[in-house]
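Quick question: what would this complex look like in 3D?
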Amino acid sequence: MKLVVTNHNRDIFKTRYVYPVVSRRAGGLSLGINLNTNNACNWQCIYCEVPNLTRGKPDPIDLNLLRVELQDWLKNLVEGDFIEKHTDPGTRFKDIALSGNGEPTACKEFKSVLRIIEEEFTACKCPTDIKIRLITNGSYLSEKEVQDAWQEMPLEKEIWFKIDSANTLTIQQLNQVNLTQNQIRKNLESALSVSSTVIQTCLTKINGQLPQESEICEYVSLLKPYEKKINSIHLYSLARPTEQKTLYSLERLSDKEMIHIADKMDKLSIPIFTFS
Ligand code: SF4
């Protein structure tokens, strides 16, 4: 069985928390840690690929089990031949990503999980170019415990911070949350104060419509004050079908459409990468 970017099924390997995927945006193999095994998130993005997504927080984490799964996978990836056997030639182990089926920072044991990652990463002598990535919608990043836990984690780390739009109506439509620009700024500033940060923006055609010019301008204005601090922007579109019931028809953008939108963001001095 080969891992491919179009299949991120977390059930293939029968582990509860830790699972490998090949990721377009990570540029290789990403070892995911799913802290939301109950498929609960505080957002409900209409394009979300998590099946049976519910609104809420994660169940308590079995930290011993998470540690054992992480040990096994790190051994497989660093010392074993898993990558050669199950991925395309040239694929490299790129990151350990706190992602999964909901918002990872909602997890009460977030700090303990980071400590386990640090200990097992060190024990396994993982190459130091493997990053620890936090894939987040940012909503809990201004909470002190979350911020402190991330700041104290000594490994090479990066936050991937979701901002799909700066327009509150589009955020309601796409992410199904009420979020003001001030709240986005506060969460983003919290991320930037503790870590290298990459903006993750999922672009979709909704009922055949591309994001409007005015929305792109709002997005640029929101990020402009932070352009010196933001590492880069990833613009991506749907790689897999949504698992959510939605009245809207969602469509993936073409390469040309993604590049066209990236060009319209040229007032930002931030490197922009597109993944269609
Ligand atoms: S924030 Fe992520 S996990 Fe939560 S609903 Fe959106 S895409 Fe799904």
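Answer marked as accepted. Residues 41, 43-45, 48, 50, 53, 102-103, 137 surround iron/sulfur cluster (CB under 6 Å).
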